Amino acid sequence: MKIGTDGVLLGAWAPIEHNPYNVLDIGTGTGIISLMIAQRSHAEQIDAFDIDEDAYEQAVDNFENSSWNDRLFCFHAALDEFMEETSDQYDLIVSNPPFYTEDYSSGNEQRDLARFADALPFEDLAEAGGFLLSQNGIFAVILPYKEEEKFIALVRDFDLFPVKITRVKGTPTSEIKRSLLAFSKHHVENFPIDELVIEISRHNYTPEYINLTKDFYLKM
């Protein structure tokens, strides 16, 4: 599985100012977001899981070969299975869920499972955030911008409220494509909303994107 910009964005952006003790990565894929949180924070326990066996095995390999292997734990499970098994609540929950909601099959079932929203419905993700988040925790996701309003309404049903939003554009003239959303169990008035542009031109990255992600790239 390739590492995409979405995972890098969420791994670099997810709020850690509240010094999370434990972290959960829902649908970890390669494990990139968990690895970035391990690099950024002093979290003692970073749990991750994925329903796809190949993704799970790749994440395990990546965790074991990292400098933070004593803090990273990966499980092969679906979301409902994980929720049934765990008794933990987490100070930080992160997820880069499958985005595509159109009825479509590429002919590759494994690829479809990783990429399409029936593998992890937003409703299930919202419920998991409400159920698994600690009282003072943060739940952070990256979604298509067109899904932002819907997801904010979904998590409100589980008493989660936005505390930070960053909307992402590929270039200064392109449309907003992604929303980075952070939620908590506490209602916050006048929370920060800002915009991030990734590139000025092809491979000519903006100072804001460089500042956000430079600690994670070998060349930036």
Automatic annotation (TrEMBL):
It is found in: Cytoplasm. One of its GO terms (biological process) is tRNA processing. Residues 22-104 form the Methyltransferase small domain. Keywords: Cytoplasm, Methyltransferase, S-adenosyl-L-methionine, Transferase, tRNA processing. GO terms for molecular function: nucleic acid binding; tRNA (adenine-N6)-methyltransferase activity. GO terms for cellular component: cytoplasm. Its main location: cytoplasm. InterPro entries: DNA_methylase_N6_adenine_CS, SAM-dependent_MTases_sf, Small_mtfrase_dom, tRNA_Adenine-N(6)_MTase, tRNA_adenine-N6_MeTrfase. It is an enzyme of class 2 (transferase). It catalyses: adenosine(37) in tRNA1(Val) + S-adenosyl-L-methionine = N(6)-methyladenosine(37) in tRNA1(Val) + S-adenosyl-L-homocysteine + H(+). The lineage of its organism: Bacteria, Pseudomonadati, Bacteroidota, Flavobacteriia, Flavobacteriales. Belongs to the methyltransferase superfamily. tRNA (adenine-N(6)-)-methyltransferase family. It comes from the Bacteria. Its EC number is 2.1.1.223. This is tRNA1(Val) (adenine(37)-N6)-methyltransferase. Pfam families: MTS (PF05175). Gene3D superfamilies: Vaccinia Virus protein VP39 (3.40.50.150).
